[in-house]
Specification:
Blueprint lengths: L1 H7 L10 H15 L2 H5 L24 H11 L5 H9 L6 E2 L4 E2 L9 E4 L33 E4 L12 E5 L1 H17 L2 H15 L2 H5 L4 E5 L7 E3 L1 H12 L22
Helix pairs in contact: 2-9
Pfam families: SMI1_KNR4
Protein name: Knr4/Smi1-like domain-containing protein
Length: 266
Amino acid sequence: MSQNRLQGGPRRRYAGRSIEKLVNIISKNTFNNYPYDTLDAYRPHDNLRNRPKDTDGLLRRGCTVSDIQALEKRLGVTLPEDYKEFLSISNGLDSIWDGQNLVDYLAGAQDVNWQEVDFLEGNELPLLSSHEPLAGTGNMLEWPNFEKSRCICLSGDINDEDRAGHLFLIGQDRLQPAKDYFFKTYEERNDTQRRELDRLVQETYGSMENFKNLEWGLISWTAWDFTVYPFNGIQDFLEQMAEASLRQERPWLNMFEPRFRKLANA
């Protein structure tokens, strides 16, 4: 198993599924696996979670072509094709179970907007997993830091207290310096280190060529994790959320609702 992981990357249960199939899987898994009764005990009685009525309860009516064109005009950009495909299938998704909390990563098109991300200032913008390369290998990456930046927030208003989790599209003004740093550093590393970096790039983006041609970065961030996670577009993000939403409640963990900060064993 470990040899397969090193050679081919982590197993991806939902790799290659269509976006339509993925959003249906996420909705079904959230409906079946989120422990509403258990975790509602830690919320105020007058502010319980809205429960989906069935396995399709997270889905919304998709956007029309004119809706998506209006969003692009309002933002002043051409959005990634996979994100536009997602919007045509479902105009956002209601709260997703990620195996630990409900997260609100995908707002409706009407709520998508440019946001100042001052709270990320001074943090690195990693384009690969922050857990690798492994410490002690001499192959660690020190990505450029966020400076005062505006990103497109696919999660809507970052100040909305009723929403948890953020998903950001990163434009070339922040993406290109991070890519430049990686390729400069890559040239300075030895053959063994380059092979490790090759593997990490392949795991995230499929190939080094895809990484070089990346037009938009996509990252998630939550206020309780403080870790930036990169994705190879909405397709990759949905595949990973479909996998995460399969997880059952693990009562030995300190489970909490991010907004209320109440631990299950408190």
